[in-house]
Structure formats: C-alpha cells, structure tokens
C-alpha cells in the first residue's frame, strides 16, 4: 500500500479551445492514480454565474447530471463518477455563482469580522476552502480539480488565482496539467504547436507553469513536436503527453499509462507507489473492441435544429448506460436519434408510414424531457413499441408518457394527458403534487424539483425485481447484505408524478406498478407482464445516472438482453 500523507492536488486546465476532452482527461488521471492504490476524489469548477446547472438548457450546455444529494451539475461530474466508481456530492461542484453566493452570505453574517471583502483574495480563498473541504470529506490522498473554460478567458481567472495561491502555500503538493489541442495544418498535415505555446504563455501570466501538458490531437504526437513544445514552454520533453483521438473514452487511461503519466505524477507530487492495477479496465476496453454483434437502438425525443454532436452531449449518461449494458454482453449498441415530431399526426400527414421505420430497432428508448414539443410523436412511438413487442425503456418523461399512452389506448381514457402539457385534461393521469404547486405558481424553478436519491420498494416476481436481484447477487461478495431486500435507491429530477387516483384503473387494465415509494404514494416503475410484452419497462427516476462501466445498471442490462433477443428473432425471420 502506498504511504498516506496530506492530500495532493492535481489541477486540470484547458488551452487553445473548449471541447477537447478536459473532463475525460481529468477522469482518466483520477483513474490511473486510483489504480495505484490512492484514494481519489474529483471536483469540477464551472465558471458560470449560475448557482448550479439546473437552470441551463441541455441542448446548449450538455446534460444536467444529478448527484445523489440532488445537486444538479455539469455532465463531467458523471464522467468522474463513472471512471472513479464513486459517489460525489455538492461538495465536489463549484460555480462562480455558488462561490459569490457563499462569500456574500458570510459577509452578511459578519463572518469577515468587519474587513473589507474583496474579489482578491476572498473569492480564491473561498475556492480553496471548498477544495480542501472536499478532500477532507472524501478522506482523499489525491484531489483532481478541473477548471472549466479555456485559458485566456476572463471568467476563470479567479480560479487560476486559487491554484497559484495553493501552489505557493504548499510546494510539492500541487501539480498542474494543461490539456491543450494541436491542429493539423497544411498539405503535409503537420501538427501545429504554436497555439499550445500561446496557451502556456497565458497560463504563465496567471503565475502558473504547467507540470504536464496533455497534447490532444487527431493523431499521436511525434518526437519532434514534443521537443518543440518542451523547448518553447520550459518543460521536459517527457512531460508532454500524446493524447490522440480514441474510439472509446475508456481507452484514455490506458493511453495515458502508455506514456507513463501516473508514474510522472507520483514523482512530481513526492508520492510513493510502485504498482498499478488496471486489469479490469483493460478487459472492459477489450470487450468493446471486439463486439459479437451490433444492436440497433432508437432514442426517440424532441430533437429540433440540433446536430448529432449536441444530442450526444445532452444525453451522455443515457448513451453511456446503454454502452455499459452492451459491453457486459460483448455487443455493440448503435444509437440512432429519431425525431418524434415526424410521428405526430398533427405535424406529419404520413406519420403512419413513417412510424413503421421503428421496426428496424432492436430496442426503443424515450428519455427524459420537458414541455409539450414532440410529445404526441413520443406517445405514438410508445404505442408502436408496445403493440409491436419491441423492447421499450422509458426514462422519467418516457415513463409519464407511457402512462398517458396506456391510459388512452388500453384503459379507454382517450383524452388522458399530463398536466404539464394539458392543464385542464379530463384525465390528469400525470399530475403535479401539492408540494410542487406553489413552486410553479411562484416561478421558483431553481433546485425545486424532486431531486436526488429516493428509495423505492420493488414488487416481487416482476421483471425489474428479477433484474435488480440478479445484479445484487452478482455483487454480493462485496456487499454487507447478501440477500436482496427489494429496496432500491435511485436519482430523480422531475416535477410531475403518476396521479394516485388513476393507479387502480390502470392496474385493472393490466399495467404493473413494479416499484413505488415506501409510503406507496409515488409510482416509481411501470412494466407489462413478460407474457404480454418481452420488455416494456419505464422508470420515474433516472437509472442512467448510476450506471458504471464496470457495473452496468440492472435496468439497462436487461433492456440490452431483451434487445439481443429481439434481434435474434428478427434475424430468424429474415433468414426464413
Ligand atoms: N417533465 C417531467 C417532469 O418534470 C419529466 C422530467 C424528466 O424527464 N426529467 O416531471
């Protein structure tokens, strides 16, 4: 075991441009240090003035990830949890807004004892406090902190000041990493180092010299480029790490280790560790490289004027959870984004012929969402999946709309709706809970939904009960209780619920509520019996937030299993 010392801090900053994978680099550095036996925690600093990510539009800023304590945060927090197989809390998430809010609150409470409160040093000091507190709470040996934004922007300067102050205060305890980007240019396709040199100069002007440069590029860096960066940026050539594009993000820690990154950080931070173990991670990557077959999964949502890239960013946890389930079965899941508006009878006259295109999918998923756009098309999609026995997984809004669909087309409540879309519907099967009514009335939208982890009790002999039980038993050697007690805890982010007044009629019509809150007031999971449909499951919570590459979520795993079966049947039919 490596010796325990006071925590060490690794800061990840980004240069040249955004979107080159700082979050994955931070998560991967965490992973390779964890593989050396260190206890690692991670923080994300978002330069936004927003207090949290809950009020941000996911098609502009990417997915809003939800932590178990209900914190609505940046999608990178999801990457940290997935790579480090840990649970983070609000202590691990910082925004400009939250820091200023805290400083102003302290000033109002006379906590600065009459001093003049200034942007410097009080803002960076508050940042340092938060980072040190996260280290303490986690009992961490190593704390990874990712600073959002790009070097040279005005918005993250106070966070860089915090890094400078920490480095000054604790020499030998702080390492800084710059994730930079090298464009390919010219007919000889040469990787250009100049933008990286400028980024380092800007970092230098904030009083920080990077210890490591992670050189992101479409291809691997040659020796010449490493020499050039090293010479111009006052670095050792060995500290310039080549980070070419990868097919699968889980390859990144392995690529870093090819460049001996963890050993370099161990040395720079005066740590002791001579062994590393990435065995299970290597198996994971190997499984993804040689899939036995490819499944077609359709994700149907309200996509409007967004490219594929943005969609992938907005639903990253859903995509990852599907991949985790597929990796475990050594298959590949090919995801197609399907715009639900093309199945909306009001928007598209030929919707009946269009919707038949869904037959090509081995599994269909309707993810979370808000508002009325695309809703009728989603409801038609769910009906199609149900009637044609295509495996269906609904998440949050995808469950609420499945309840609407079932009410209309099976229970005979043909005007049923969610009050989110139709306030005065004669059959409000999805309604707002009394405790949420005031929030809506007073326009209190920030942090007021039903957020974070809540328990649910599962009904025995149901599909989901079987799935969770199986997953529990596979991990039981590492768990305290060997027997599955039918209680799960999952993360939520919604304002509306199944209306308890309609539960009985829906049950009478064949819908199973296989998971409820402990007091039975809130419906958490619906499903159809497997004699009727091979896999028709929808959850009020978001199982995708808890799925990990090495332990896929049971619901996603069984969705993939059902999709594999439906693929086999399809193959059988076409071969006949
Ligand atoms: N719009 C729905 C609600 O607020 C569903 C939310 C979601 O899918 N995350 O209840």
TrEMBL record:
Domain CTP synthase N-terminal residues, every copy: 8-271
Reactions accelerated catalytically: L-glutamine + H2O = L-glutamate + NH4(+); UTP + L-glutamine + ATP + H2O = CTP + L-glutamate + ADP + phosphate + 2 H(+); UTP + NH4(+) + ATP = CTP + ADP + phosphate + 2 H(+)
Domain Glutamine amidotransferase: 311-561
Record-linked NCBIfam families: PRK05380.1, PyrG
One GO-annotated biological process of the protein: pyrimidine nucleobase biosynthetic process
Name of the molecule in the record: CTP synthase
Keywords carried by this UniProt record: ATP-binding, Glutamine amidotransferase, Ligase, Magnesium, Metal-binding, Nucleotide-binding, Pyrimidine biosynthesis
GO cellular component: cytoophidium
Gene: pyrG
PROSITE patterns, per database record: GATASE_TYPE_1 (PS51273)
Positions with a binding annotation for L-glutamine: 369, 397-400, 420, 495
């Amino acid at each position: 075991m490596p010796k325990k010392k006071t925590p060490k801090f690794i800061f990840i900053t980004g240069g040249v441009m955004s979107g080159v994978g700082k979050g994955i680099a931070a998560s991967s550095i965490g992973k390779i240090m964890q593989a050396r036996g260190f206890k690692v925690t991670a923080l994300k600093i978002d330069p936004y003035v927003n207090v949290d990510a809950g009020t941000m539009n996911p098609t502009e800023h990417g997915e809003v990830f939800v932590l178990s304590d209900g914190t609505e945060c940046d999608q990178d927090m999801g990457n940290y949890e997935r790579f480090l197989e840990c649970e983070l809390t609000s202590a691990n998430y910082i925004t400009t807004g939250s820091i200023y809010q805290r400083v102003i609150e302290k000033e109002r409470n006379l906590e600065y004892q009459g001093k003049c409160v200034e942007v410097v040093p009080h803002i960076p000091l508050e940042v340092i406090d938060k980072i040190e507190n996260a280290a303490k709470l986690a009992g961490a040996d190593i704390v990874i902190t990712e600073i959002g934004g790009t070097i040279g922007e005005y918005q993250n300067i106070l966070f860089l000041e915090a890094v400078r102050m920490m480095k000054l205060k604790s020499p030998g305890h702080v390492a800084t990493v710059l994730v930079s980007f090298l464009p390919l240019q010219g007919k000889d396709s040469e990787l250009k180092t100049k933008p990286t040199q400028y980024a380092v100069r800007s970092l230098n002007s904030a009083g920080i010299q990077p210890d490591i440069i992670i050189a992101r590029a479409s291809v691997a860096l040659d020796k010449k480029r490493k020499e050039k960066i090293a010479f111009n940026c006052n670095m050792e050539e060995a500290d310039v790490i080549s980070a070419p594009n990868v097919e699968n993000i889980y390859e990144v820690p392995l690529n870093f280790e090819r460049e001996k990154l963890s050993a370099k950080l161990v040395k720079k931070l005066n740590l002791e560790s001579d062994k590393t173990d990435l065995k299970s991670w290597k198996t994971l990557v190997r499984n993804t490289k040689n899939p036995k077959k490819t499944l077609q999964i359709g994700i149907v949502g309200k996509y409007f004027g967004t490219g594929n890239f943005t969609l992938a960013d907005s639903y990253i946890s859903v995509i990852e959870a599907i991949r985790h389930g597929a990796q475990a079965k050594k298959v590949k899941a090919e995801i197609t984004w399907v715009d639900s508006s093309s199945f909306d009878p009001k928007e598209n006259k030929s919707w009946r012929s269009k919707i038949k295109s869904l037959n090509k999918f081995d599994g269909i998923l309707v993810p979370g969402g808000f508002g009325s756009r695309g809703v009728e098309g989603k409801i038609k999609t769910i009906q199609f999946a149900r009637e044609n026995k295509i495996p269906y997984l609904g998440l949050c809004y995808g469950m609420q709309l499945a309840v609407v669909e079932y009410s209309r087309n099976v229970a005979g409540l043909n005007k049923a709706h969610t009050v989110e879309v139709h306030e005065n519907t004669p059959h409000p099967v999805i309604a707002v809970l009394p405790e949420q009514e005031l929030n809506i009335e007073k326009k209190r939208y920030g942090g007021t939904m039903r957020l974070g982890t809540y328990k649910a009790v599962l009904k025995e002999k149901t599909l989901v009960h079987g799935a969770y039980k199986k997953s529990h038993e596979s991990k039981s050697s590492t768990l305290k209780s060997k027997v599955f007690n039918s209680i799960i805890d999952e993360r939520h982010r919604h304002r509306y619920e199944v209306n308890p007044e309609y539960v009985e009629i829906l049950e009478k019509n064949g819908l199973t509520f296989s998971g409820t809150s402990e007091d039975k007031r809130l419906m958490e999971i619906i499903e159809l019996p497997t004699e009727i449909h091979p896999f028709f499951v929808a959850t009020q919570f978001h199982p995708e937030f808890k799925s990990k590459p090495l332990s896929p979520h049971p619901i996603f795993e069984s969705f993939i299993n059902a999709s594999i079966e439906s693929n086999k049947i399809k193959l059988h039919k076409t071969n006949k």
